[in-house]
TrEMBL record:
Keywords: Signal. PROSITE patterns: TAT. The keyword Signal applies. This is Spermidine/putrescine ABC transporter periplasmic substrate-binding protein. Coiled coil: none annotated. InterPro entries: TAT_signal. It comes from the Bacteria. PANTHER family: SPERMIDINE/PUTRESCINE-BINDING PERIPLASMIC PROTEIN (PTHR30222), SPERMIDINE_PUTRESCINE-BINDING PERIPLASMIC PROTEIN (PTHR30222:SF17). The keyword Signal applies.
Amino acid sequence: MVTRRQFAAGAAAFVGLSALGAPRRLLAGRTDRLNILCWEGYNSDQVLNPFRELHPDATVRAESGTSDPEMINRLRAGELAVWDLINVNQPWARGEMARDKLIRPLNKDRFLPYFAKMTPEFAKPYPMSFSDSGDLLGMPQRYGPFSFVVNTDKISIETAETEGWDLFSDPGLNKRYGLLTYDNWNVIHLCLAAGVDPFKPVEGADAQKFADKAKQIVAGARLMTDDLVAMNTALINGEIDCYFTGGSYTASPARYDGASFVRAITPRGGGFGGKGGASWVELTSAVNNPDPSDLAEDFLEFVQKPEIAQLVAFSEGTYNPVAQMGNPEVLARFDADMLDAIQYDTLEEDMSRCHEFDAVPSYDALLATYVAARRG
């Protein structure tokens, strides 16, 4: 099963238009057509149908990708004229898509006022949304910390936050934890556990630290799967006490079902540079379609609405904070159970302990090392 946060690395093959069917001419009636390439959630009818009702003469389609690079490479491979919006994680707008002219700037007069109503980390406004020249490249919405998850009936929050990644080196935890196999995040988290900066080239002694940590973490895991439901079930049933790679995103379904002892943890330290955690932020950008749809920016504004922002946060069975929760009208739409599911009580503190997700320069070599460890 391919999961939402299991990012692929490197080029993805051109896989066709899938839900859109075979390539065809999309030039006519562009004011009546909107195509969105996104992570799951934005392709949900509960989000799309209200927009369709506002534009009954428009054809509105959305398709979920399997990784950031896969979606970006679809634009490179011939689908630039197909899509109007793309929803991927924060480093790609500045790092690749703007550079390669895959996206176009948004109307700053239209969208800058929305930043002022976002949560503090985005209200500045969020720097990853802008190019060096000041162009607005994308709008943030869903986000969250992503490190590991524990059963707080077995491991206290205090212990987990204080010990951080060292928790998984405790001999007493051997065969008592799971490994959620989201490869890209595993590579980042193994670097953090080894005290290595994944966002710089990892070579020499640091590469050996990574290799040693990968072997140790893999050898000590009782369960390895990319299925977050199976991992949460093992945690709830007592088969494991915690799992390596996870966050409020993966813990949220179990918590919303009442298992509040399933809790995402952001280490207080460790890692490198005084921060032990990592976080992700989605940005939605306008594709540089040669015949752009007028509905692209309309949709971007539509998902800023309080009632729609809440639907985006709670769609598709996993639940996430949204930047728009800084707006009291948006926050008021989340009841106590919803806020508890996404661990809103510690969200700001958890995010402050995180490095932002970024591309990993040594990813291919580190992934090969990690895969070798898994194969034994």
